[in-house]
Amino acid sequence: MKFSTLFAVAVAALVAAPFAAGAADAPAAFNQCKMCHKTEAGGKSMGPSLFGVVGRKSGSLEGYSYSPAMVASGKTWDAANLSTYLADPKAFVPGNKMAFAGLKDPALVKAVVDYLVTLK
Ligand code: HEC
Known about the structure:
α1 (3-15) packs across α4 (79-87). The chain has helices spanning 3-15, 31-34, 68-72, 79-87, 89-92, 106-117. The chain has a single domain, classed as Orthogonal Bundle (Cytochrome Bc1 Complex, Chain D, domain 2). Helices cover 39% and strands 0% of the residues. It is mostly helical. The site of heme C has 28 residues, from α2, α3 and α4.
């Protein structure tokens, strides 16, 4: 089993824990995302709005101009896929245009994904 697969499985187990109820405040790690992403519906920025991203098909937000790689990636943004992507965006969706190196600390990945789940 490849390390990335192991990692994804480990992270999936972590994020499978029940989420705290109620709207969460953005964790500190999310400040990096805010440079490029809005969290309200239809919010325009360098990247697509992250409102409702959990459960969305990758590259599918109407009105945002994605890279061909993201459009073709065919993922669904569930917690496991988001965790894998945020840990290493270039590895999970090669050729995508998100200029972000990735969150190396699994605890930060979990904090950000837990927050993304609340954006609905
Ligand atoms: C430097 C700007 C930048 C930063 C920083 C950044 N992103 Fe992105 N993000 C983008 C761009 C641009 C895209 C579109 C990629 C494409 O089309 O290839 C994207 C795409 C995404 C997607 C896929 C959305 C979809 O609709 O398919 C997710 C999820 C995402 N980013 C989450 C995050 C999170 C969470 C962070 C912080 C940990 C973050 N991004 C940091 C610019 C950024």
